[in-house]
Amino acid sequence: MAKVKITVVKKLNNKDMFGDNPPVDFTLAPECNRLNVGQEFISDEGMCPSGFCAWAFADIQRDITHLRFGGDFPWMKKKGTILSSCTDGVRPVIFKLERIEE
User: Fold this and answer.
1) Is residue 13 scored above 90 in pLDDT?
2) pLDDT at 34
3) Is it the case that residue 99 has pLDDT exceeding 90?
4) Full DSSP string of 5-50
């Protein structure tokens, strides 16, 4: 089974999404402070990489598993890739997932 490379491609800022009038109040930083754009991680054997956010991994694990077992996503031009995101409604992060062919 393949490894999967996870790249942080975008962090959404809650000010950009909601302006100064969010639908609920929150106390967190305006964007994710655990990951940085450009960071790369390798998921080996479907495991959460060291230093990666466990909450985000739980959200993207389905897509990682699909890629690991050779699956593709027909709406993606490049086989073995997908964009996936964590489901943090206040400050989501978008990831590029790529199957590593060995």
Assistant:
1) no
2) 93
3) yes
4) EEEEEEE--HHHHHTT--SS---S-SS-SS--TT-EEEESTTPPPT
Q: Write out pLDDT tens, residues 19-59.
A: 887 887 777 788 899 999 999 999 999 999 999 999 999 99
C-alpha 38/C-alpha 35 separation (Å) is 9
* Residues 97 and 62 sit within 8 Å (Cβ to Cβ): no
Judge contact between 94 and 10, C-beta under 8 A.
yes
Cβ atoms of residues 2 and 102 within 8 Å: yes
**In the structure encoding, which two tokens stand for residue 83, read together?**
């964009």
- For 79, list phi and psi in degrees, rounded to 5: -65, 145
The structure's pTM equals: 0.92
Q: Could you tell me the two tokens for 98?
A: 């790529």
d(CA 37, CA 22): 24
Going 23 to 34 to 87 to 13, the CA torsion angle's sign is: positive
